[in-house]
Design brief:
Rossmann fold, elongated, 3 domains, disordered C terminus, alpha/beta, 13 helices, 434 Repressor (Amino-terminal Domain), about 15% strand
Length: about 350
């Protein structure tokens, strides 16, 4: 027979309400009482009835997380951050994958918003289609945007300073002596647009003219970087250095470079963005711009749960921006040059 709250309450001489509040870490219950309740619940092997909890509170204690690419370690790290914070607050996550498809994202959001207490979304949507999310918010859906933002929405957002990502990557290549720096441009997402803006700003700050012919339309996947780089190579007009919108695009480009017989870091330099977890284990380790994906996920989960539980009236307007940092490896040629100087 399973142990109930009534069994714990009877043993301790407390009310069921006090026991329930202690197990759920209610700040109104003093620490000594909490410790007694938790000790007895562990000894009796008490298992919470989540279905009953949901009925009492009118909440599912589920959070929907919608990302573009479940195979991308970047989003896996974000989900790890979301999951760790959610579990500490006694929530579980339900995951949706969009594969960068707008319709699929909207279908996932529509389905999950009725099954969960709130949504965390790394959105592919831009422009007027964002009105769909504003309508959901107006209808009571709790929503936090992560990684990618939509300025038109009245909801919390967690991202990095993507303009600074572009500046850091491009200025690093400029400091290495490159004058002709190309950019593998992403999609219409906010991250792609802002990293392009950072690229432009870095050129301008250093007296280099922006040349649209040095910007190659790409995408966010390895296959996009591979195709775009092959196109550049076939044109016979490859720049001496490239800032790729993210690490997967950079890795795809590096494959194309290698197949063309180019020595990465010597014939051509490349910098990515996002610090994908195996970037330092590539045959030519990838120079990149990094920020904490785990911290990003934890911040988004915290903002969403604050909304759900009504703990912070200002959480609905917060925008958290994490600072990026440059990580120098071999793909940009900096380490080769340092070694050459030392020798």
């Amino acid at each position: 027979m399973s142990v109930t709250l009534a069994d714990i309450a009877k043993e301790l001489g407390l009310s069921k309400m006090t026991v329930s509040r202690a197990i759920n870490d209610d700040p109104l219950v003093n620490a000594k009482t909490k410790a007694r309740v938790l000790e007895v619940s562990r000894r009796l092997n008490y298992k919470p009835n989540h279905f009953a909890r949901a009925l009492v509170t009118n909440r599912s204690f589920l959070i929907g997380v919608i990302v573009p690419d479940l195979m991308h370690s970047y989003f896996a790290e974000i989900m790890h951050g979301i999951g760790s914070f959610a579990r500490s607050a006694k929530y579980q996550i339900v995951i949706g994958n969009t594969e960068e498809q707008v319709k699929r994202e909207l279908d996932e959001a529509e389905a999950l918003r009725w099954r969960t207490d709130g949504l965390i979304i790394a959105t592919t949507i831009q422009g007027s289609r964002a009105n769909v999310y504003q309508e959901m918010i107006d209808e009571g859906t709790k929503l936090v945007l992560i990684d990618r933002t939509l300025d038109s929405l009245d909801c919390p957002m967690v991202t990095t300073d993507n303009i600074e990502v572009g500046v850091l990557a491009t200025e690093h290549l400029i400091k290495l002596g490159h004058k002709r720096i190309g950019h593998l441009r992403g999609t219409t997402t906010s991250t792609s647009k802002e990293r392009l803006e950072g690229y432009k700003q870095a050129l301008g700050r250093n007296g280099l003219a922006y040349d649209k012919d040095l910007v190659m339309e790409c995408g966010l996947m390895e296959s996009d970087g591979y195709s775009a780089m092959n196109k550049w190579i076939k044109s016979g007009d490859v720049p001496t250095a490239i800032f790729a919108v993210n690490d997967p695009a950079a890795i795809g480009a590096m494959q194309a470079m290698s197949e063309a017989g180019m020595t990465i870091g010597e014939d051509i330099a490349i910098v990515g963005g996002g610090n994908i977890h195996y970037g330092d284990m590539l045959s030519v380790p990838l120079t990149t711009v990094s920020w904490s994906r785990t911290e990003m996920g934890q911040a988004a989960a915290r903002l969403l749960i604050q909304q759900i539980e009504g703990a912070d009236s200002d959480s609905g307007r917060q925008k958290i921006i994490l600072s990026p940092t440059l990580i120098v490896r071999s793909s940009c040629g900096a380490k080769r040059r340092s070694a050459a100087v030392l020798s």
